[in-house]
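Subgroup meeting minutes
Present: P.N., E.W., G.H.
Scribe: E.W.

1. P.N. recapped why we're keeping a running log of single-chain structure predictions: easier to compare across weeks, and new members can see raw inputs and outputs side by side.
2. G.H. added today's entry (242 aa).
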Amino acid sequence: TSFSTPKKKKRDDGMREHVTGCARSEGYYKIDKKDKLKYLNNSRAFAEEPPADTQVRIIPAQPHASTRAGSERRSEQRRLLSSFTGSCDSDLLKFNQLKFRKKKLKFCKSHIHDWGLFAMEPIAADEMVIEYVGQNIRQVIADMREKRYEDEGIGSSYMFRVDHDTIIDATKCGNFARFINHSCNPNCYAKVITVESQKKIVIYSKQHINVNEEITYDYKFPIEDVKIPCLCGSENCRGTLN
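Output recorded in log:
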């Protein structure tokens, strides 16, 4: 593997001559300081020397390429933002903002039922509060799991119906959204949005929510013979969840 490399020859202009014809195939080698100074001085002199026809004409300064490209990208982003805001895709824009800047929430004991979700910062009206996260399952699997949860002693139901075929199960793998309690006079509501051809459930605020205020929404359970009592305590309480 050891072999002698031929010495690098220099051309008449002082630059190193590449034996193989390509600088990349010869690997890395150091350049003498003298040669480097010659190259820098020549390039600087060429850059500072004005052309012959610029004695009368004044050429305006051109912005740097990276600066110009950055300003064009920012203007394009502003155009896209304005088009998104004025169209039906505003929900998608809000959802992206919610992913990068999540609302400050906490769960603790609630006067309505067991655990509840509370706001740790003021939330304006018509804002995305939190996404209801869980496993997307079919109706058949939901019926099987509901029976199994009853056998295991899990009294609360954390299943949220998206459409006729899809249900989100947050019983054993979900986020803080499953702690939101029902209220007949809620300060939030649930909405189904489509993100990248996938349906998601997002909790929106109906009104301004203060700090330490409990977040609630209407479960909208179907009407059944076996009634579930409601403990929200609001003035217009219906008395039952279903």
